[in-house]
Write a structure and sequence with these properties.
There is one protein chain. About 35% of the residues lie in helices and about 10% in strands. The protein is of the alpha/beta class and about 375 residues long. The chain folds into two domains: about 240 residues, Aspartate Aminotransferase, domain 2 (3-Layer(aba) Sandwich), CATH 3.40.640; about 100 residues, Alpha-Beta Complex (Aspartate Aminotransferase, domain 1), CATH 3.90.1150. A seven-stranded mixed beta sheet has the order 2-8-7-6-5-3-4, with helices on both faces. Helix 4 packs parallel to helix 10. The structure holds pyridoxal-5'-phosphate. The site of pyridoxal-5'-phosphate (PLP) has 13 residues, from helix 5.
Length: about 375
């Protein structure tokens, strides 16, 4: 008997799935890469030392599984934030943590259920919520679970619609702060209003918080319905190492530990992360440099060019290109994007929605890289626009 085609074996929602679109990672040299918010500076030199130490002369330690709960790393994270080890869970990147949270709080929609499935049980239709625009991984994670989403749109102000979030039926609401792709950060005063009015779990995705004025960690002591998610990919210059973490009440950490892979963070990544977290001077100098360049660029775009630019507290800016005729819009942004590409400057354009289509998201690179960017934009306005 021949087997059935995969299209009949794989679950229908998986066949319909749209995979996450990562930013381009060009393989040839020579690109000014301002498209995925990576750090333009290398990580602490202690990271390479720690990796060499962990590998040793012959790699013998790699025979052994890593610490299953990443305990020494949890302890280092807890100490850094003035929390306890039981408030910390480590992920294989913060994307791993976000995925675990979706698996805990978001379930299949009734529509995807075969006839005869037990209905009326509490899990049917358990929804996850988030703002649009924000991190485009959330919908992918929910689609993988065949889950339901309750999405709330920003208006052009990009301020939080507090009453609409309070009224959301989501069990878990993802809030990116500072937000991506806008860079706009939400105040702890606003987060407190959400935490006291919204009935579900609030997940504050703080991938960019080291570049911001405020963060939600001080709220953890008072709000058991808060999870803060962090990553070492941006401010610690370790996107390639894949380490992120969740900070929350012990009960929530216990749920994450039930669902995660038992060895979700490899030996080398644990060692690298501990070394990076330990080098506070290196971290502080990266963050200070990126913030200074960002603030110069914000002023360059808004004051000198007169382009509408959101007040970013992240390591990127979201700006609305204006051509020589003073026009803005999707085709203007696309023209600037294409022109930059032709100059081997890579940024990000999100053409599929009116709130984002007229903008470009530009990661903060070195001062030299930003110089190339600005020169290329001058050339675009003069000739290419
Ligand atoms: C970059 C980013 C992440 C991903 O972090 P990893 O730790 O690299 O998985 C999570 N959330 C947001 C909003 C991001 O921009």
């Amino acid at each position: 008997m021949s087997s059935s085609p995969l299209s009949q074996l794989a679950l229908p929602h998986v066949l319909r799935l749209h995979a996450y679109t990562p930013g381009l990672q060009p393989t040839e040299a020579g690109w000014v890469k301002l498209n995925t918010n990576e750090c333009p500076y290398p990580p602490s030199p202690r990271v390479a030392e720690a990796l060499r130490r962990e590998i040793g002369a012959d790699g013998a330690s790699l025979r052994l599984y890593p610490n299953p709960k990443s305990i020494p790393l949890r302890a280092a994270v807890a100490q850094l934030h003035g929390l306890k080890e039981e408030n910390v869970c480590i992920g294989n990147g913060s994307d791993d943590i976000l995925n675990l949270l979706v698996r805990i709080f978001c379930a299949a929609s009734t529509a995807g259920r075969p006839a005869g499935a037990p209905d009326g049980h509490a899990l049917l239709g358990a929804t996850a919520g988030w703002m649009f625009p924000s991190y485009s991984l959330y919908p992918v994670l929910v689609e993988i679970q065949d889950g339901r989403a309750a999405i709330i749109e920003f208006d052009r102000s990009m301020q939080l619609p507090l009453a609409r979030i309070a009224a959301s039926s989501a069990r878990a609401f993802f809030l990116t702060s500072p937000n991506a792709p806008t860079g706009v950060a939400f105040s702890n005063a606003d987060l407190e209003r959400v935490l006291t009015s919204f009935r579900g779990l609030l997940i504050v995705d703080e991938a960019y918080a080291p570049f911001a004025a405020e963060n939600a960690i001080p709220l953890l002591a008072r709000f058991p319905n808060l999870v803060v998610v962090r990553t070492l990919s941006k401010a610690y210059a370790l996107a390639g190492i894949r380490v992120g973490y969740a900070l929350a009440a012990p009960e929530l950490i216990g749920l994450l530990d039930r669902v995660r892979d038992s060895y979700n963070v490899n030996r080398l990544s644990q060692a690298a992360a501990i070394a990076a977290l330990g080098d506070r001077d290196h971290f502080a100098s990266i963050v200070a440099k990126v913030r200074a360049t960002r603030d110069q660029q914000l002023s360059r775009f808004s004051n000198e060019r007169g382009w509408f630019t959101y007040p970013s507290q992240a390591n990127f800016i979201f700006t609305e290109p204006r051509n020589a005729r003073g026009e803005t819009g999707l085709t203007v942004a696309k023209s600037a994007y294409d022109f930059l590409c032709s100059r081997k400057v890579l940024v990000r354009h999100f053409p599929n929605h009116a709130l984002t289509a007229s903008f470009l998201r530009i990661s903060i690179g070195t001062d030299d890289e930003m110089g190339v960017l600005q020169q290329s934009l001058d050339a675009w306005r003069q000739g290419g626009a």
